[in-house]
Amino acid sequence: MLPPELTPASQIALTLRAVGGLTTAEIARAFLVPEATMAQRISRARQKIRASGARFTVPSDMNPVLHVLYLIFNEGYTASSGPSLHRAELAREAIRLTRIVHALLPSDGEVAGLLALMLLTDARRPARTRADGSLVPLAEQDRSLWDRALVDEGLALVRWALQHTRVGVYQVQAAIAAVHAEAGTAGQTD
Questions:
Q1: What is the per-residue pLDDT across 92-145, written as a single tens digit (0 to 9) for each?
Q2: What's the pLDDT at 81?
Q3: Which long-range contacts (CB under 8 A, 24 or more apart) does 162-168 make?
Q4: d(CA 72, CA 65)
Q5: What is the CA radius of gyration of the chain?
Q6: Which residue, 174, 32, 188, is CA-closest to 116?
Q7: Model-level pTM?
Q8: CB-based burial of residue 19 (10 Å sphere; 0-12 exposed, 13-18 middle, 19+ buried)?
Q9: In this structure, what is the dihedral angle of CA atoms 117, 101, 87, 19, given to the nearest 10 degrees?
Q10: Residue 19 has pLDDT above 80, yes or no
């Protein structure tokens, strides 16, 4: 756990840099701030950690952790820079890390919801771009290209989470993604 004197924004930015491997520019774009501002925020956070002698522990509030994983996934699924619309390695890493958190906290509905959201979203990646690299809107995607194993796993997770835990923001987003994943065509989406 990062020192409590760090703001949640600083904790998330530092974690994205240290754990997620995102560049300062990518983090700045995610926070909608200038790169210089983000560089200063990260530098100050590192200084506070050094000065406090803080040790890392498992946080009692998982929301910042889940938010970091969500941001890493989003940067992988919709790259904010570079020649490609996505950075599959970042999306896969976010899914891998979220799987670890889910294994540690299997009864946490928000962890299950976030993992479901990532799986359902990433399942569409093969159909998301044309040969020239341009984006294919969801309504026009060839659903036969979607990764059915990821869809099935995501659907099972979101169903479990909605039936057994209190509903949270990631579960709601996963439920919306599930509606699209279950429909055979865009026109059949309820």
A1: 989 998 998 898 889 999 999 999 999 999 999 999 988 888 889 989 999 999
A2: 66
A3: 162/109, 164/107, 164/109, 165/107, 165/108, 165/109, 165/110, 165/112, 166/109, 167/109, 168/109, 168/110, 168/113
A4: 11
A5: 18
A6: 174
A7: 0.73
A8: middle
A9: 140
A10: no
